[in-house]
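Might I ask for a little of your time on a matter of protein folding? The record follows directly beneath this note:
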Amino acid sequence: MFHSDLYNKFVLALVGLLPLTLVVGTMISEVLIFTIIFFFLSEILIKKKFEFFKDDIFLFLCVIWIYLLLNLINSTNFELSLLRSIFFIRFPLLVIAINFFLKKNSYNFDLIFKLWGITLAIVIIDLYFQAIFGFNTIGFKSPWSERLSGFLKDELKIAHILIGFVMPTICFYIPKTKNKIYILVLIFLYILILLLTNERSNTLKGIIVVFGIFIFYEKFNFKKKIFSIAMIVLTITLVLSFNKNINQRFVIEISSNYLKEKTLFNYIKYSNYGPTYLAGLEIFKKYPIFGSGIKTFRIECNNVDIKNHYRTTSNLYRNKCNTHPHQVYFEILSELGLIGFLLFFSFFFYLIYKSTKCYLNNKNKILLSSLLFIFAQIIPLLPSGSFFTNFGATIFWINVSIIYSINKKYEKSIS
């Protein structure tokens, strides 16, 4: 069975369905991830091929996982941290598993990106429908009329799926499309729908990725790059000028708050996420080495005081608590301490360094797009979803899987 081409394509089809399962429900995506890992472990156990144990990326991730397990000893709430720490291992295994099956398929990504393309096309068309009619194609209305939720109904995070999967998919089709105008049109439609979702942080991250691809796309000469970027800027400017809701969130709120607070530091401090950032910082000060334990921010935020960060007239400190600090730096620092922060960010920078070398040698656009996505996720101070929740983590580690697989494909040329 393991040698069957049909079996291998079936497993790759499961990878191709991961974006769809995130739209339907994260529980289904978890089942799919464990299914992929099950097929992988079953095959290597039967064949007794354990070469991946020597792989630097896998070993690095295993060190992080072992730290998460040891960190349970210091967690202020062992029960709350337990499952998330134990099951983090699924992501290192997913990274290795996806590469394993892609390698068996001679690193042919066709099936994966075809399925991603179909899913993303449906999601984007549905979002345009909701933008026009106020409800999506199956009748869901956004809980906030100024923003789009699409198939996620009450959850305002659909743009996270888009920025995680759209550009790698478009970059897969760039070499296959003779007329690049079609690609440019798709990118403009993608940026437009990002703006219409009204998710500021995810939209900014998505635009950064697109700009990065245009800048590093070697087949575009300088004039074409300037023209493409100018058209994107014009598109953004027109949307901000004619859509009052988007203008309110992207221009008026940001500019008025910045002018009021005078400095970038004060602007961030007095923003909606400022109190959770500061609560994360105070938790880190309280538990600087090991943190308070994974998933414990929601409890520990009640046990720190951030009033001294605000003017006496401010009531913002009352909003210091949430399920997470809404910023990856503060989340890792507060929950895993300085050691956890150094481990994770050493991994991120090692991955970026290794992948940049691979890109410079091979100019693979899929690698570039996923690499830029990872970079956008770790930009300091920009708000983010929780790094460790199923939804956000799945999108992040699938991109790591794509990066890792392309690195392995070209490994000889970068060694």
The two ends are 34 Å apart (CA to CA). The CA atoms of residues 102 and 108 lie 7 Å apart. The chain is about 70% helix and 0% strand. Residues 112-261 form one domain.
